[in-house]
Amino acid sequence: HNQVQYELDNAYFSIGARDGVISLKRSLLGDPTDTYRLTVYAVDGGSPVLRSRPNDVEIFVMRNRYSPEIEGEPYSKALLQSVAPGSDVVTISAIDRDEREPFNRLQYEIIGEDAAGAYFRIDATNGRITVSNNLETDASREYQIRVRVSDGGTPPRTDTTLVTVPVNRNL
């Protein structure tokens, strides 16, 4: 009669009868609840079965509710072909209305398969785009820099924007 098992009756959570580990039974997606209050009982193996008083357990769920939002669009900046590497182009501004980290922590990156990634770089933490290579080595008259901002969720929520950079080639 010194065998103890655990019991829990809940639609989203289950408990290991022998080890008392609480696990998800099904996904919490679609359920807006942030705090789940569970009642756990310890039950012995005797006859008659003895049950503990209710033990309350609270589970707090941190949710990534909001996607980042890029502000100040559209972004455009004309450059001379002779602009020096390291020169500023634009700084992308974004917000995330989530109150908790990591969901409100933003990261910026240049995406895409075009030449823009070879000639421009972005600071991952503040969205500042700079020239990374000599533009005179490429004949493009305009670059389209695609930028994605992601939050710290798993998976992350994202937003994207396009930065247009016409280049004066003085031909």
Say how many strands there are: 15
Overall residue-averaged pLDDT value = 94
Order of helices and strands: EEEEEEEEEEEHEEEE
The SS-based structural class is mainly beta
Topology readout:
Elements: E1 4-8, E2 13-15, E3 22-24, E4 35-44, E5 55-60, E6 69-71, E7 75-76, E8 79-80, E9 88-91, E10 93-95, E11 107-111, H1 116-119, E12 120-122, E13 128-131, E14 142-150, E15 158-168
Parallel strand pairs: 7-15, 8-15
Antiparallel strand pairs: 1-4, 2-3, 4-5, 6-10, 9-13, 11-14, 12-13, 14-15
Keywords for this entry:
single chain; 171 residues; mainly beta; five-stranded mixed sheet; three-stranded antiparallel sheet
Describe this structure in words.
The chain has one helix at residues 116-119; strands at 4-8, 13-15, 22-24, 35-44, 55-60, 69-71, 75-76, 79-80, 88-91, 93-95, 107-111, 120-122, 128-131, 142-150, 158-168. With 171 residues, the protein is mainly β. The longest helix has 4 residues, at 116-119.
